[in-house]
Amino acid sequence: MSTIAYAAKRLANGDVVALPTETVYGLGALCHDDSAVQKIFQIKGRPSCNPLIIHVRDLVQAEKYGVFDYQAKTLVKAFWPGPLTLVVPLLPKAKVSRYVTAGLDTIAIRCPSHPIAQNLLSLCSSPIAAPSANTSGYVSSTRFEHVYQEFGDKVTVIESDRSIVGLESTIVDCSESLIKILRPGKVTQVDLENVLNSRVSTSDTKAGSAIKAPGQLKHHYSPRAEVRLNATYKEEDEAVLDFGASNLRGGGFGLNLSPEGNLPDAAANLFDFLRHLDTLGYPKIAVAPIPNKGIGVAVNERLSRAALRKE
Q1: What 3 state SS string does the chain have?
Q2: For 285, phi and psi rounded to 5 degrees?
Q3: pLDDT tens-digit map of 68-127
């Protein structure tokens, strides 16, 4: 029996499976199974008010769970399968656990491009509800080793190469007339506006608005070490997360997200490098400035949340 077939059997039995996607590793359960979905929240320590994304094979399956208007279908045609999640009105009587939607009348849906995720979905009786495979609030997992480090044998893990994108999907709210980005990712505001030929707004998640999709909690993606952003010098007790030619390390220990200043490479390395630096025992991590353009917007958004300390 292949690993994918075994994982599908575990899901059918109501278990939780860690699966690779092109964005990050996910912690998945069949979306209709209340008990299995509850296990995700328990294993992660995830607040029940934080909804989950369901992962589907294609638009045909997605339309059994959400209502897709013309704009949503335009985005599907352009970006699915891929790192884009759409928040759409929940289809009445959709067979989905109430824990997935956190009681909302909308649902977040994505079609992953990773071949293992697609193969797994083809063997499952329903979509897979899956947040990132990490303890709630901690740095997301982009390698199967990260999942083992956090959860050990609590979940079945499908082993694969490191996630290519390295950041969670862009989340776009299509439930209202004005399209809004709820979480930035690889698919940028410019990408969306070029496809829709109309304005796309961005969500001010710092304003305390109600949570409508994953990734909107203020404190998120955080290592145990304190994170200091836009650093131009290194303090004695800091490890360094460099970018490009900033040469922030100054003789101390550090990693460079991309010595060439390549933003997609920086995104792919971000969580992996944060996790590694967090194992070294430094109380702080100094992060060099990263250009706030393209996928750099998503990198900076993740870092800004990582830098917030719990109240």
Answers
A1: CCHHHHHHHHHHCCCCEEECCCCCCEEEEECCCHHHHHHHHHHHCCCCCCCCEEECCCHHHHCCCECCCHHHHHHHHHHCCCCEEEEEEECCCCCCCHHHHCCCCEEEEECCCCHHHHHHHHCCCCCEECCECCCCCCCCCCCHHHHHHHHCCCCEECCCCCCCCCCCCEEEECCCCCCEEEECCCCCHHHHHHHHCCCCEECCHHHCCCCCCCCCCCCCCCCCCEEECCCCCCCCCEEEEECCCCCCCCCCCEEECCCCCCHHHHHHHHHHHHHHHHCCCCCEEEECCCCCCCCHHHHHHHHHHHHCCCC
A2: -125, 120
A3: 999 999 999 999 999 999 999 999 999 999 999 999 999 999 999 999 999 999 999 999
Residue with tokens 């145990």: 224
Distance CA 163, CA 160 (A): 8
Alpha carbon distance 132, 135 (integer Å):
9
Among the listed residues 43, 9, 47, 247, the one whose alpha carbon sits nearest the alpha carbon of residue 155: 43
Find how far residue 81's CA is from the centre of its chain: 15
Handedness of CA 294, 297, 302, 307 (dihedral sign): positive
d(CA 237, CA 192) in angstroms, rounded, equals: 42
pTM over 0.85: yes
Encoding tokens for residue 283?
A: 């109380």
Neighbours of 1 (CB within 10 A): 8
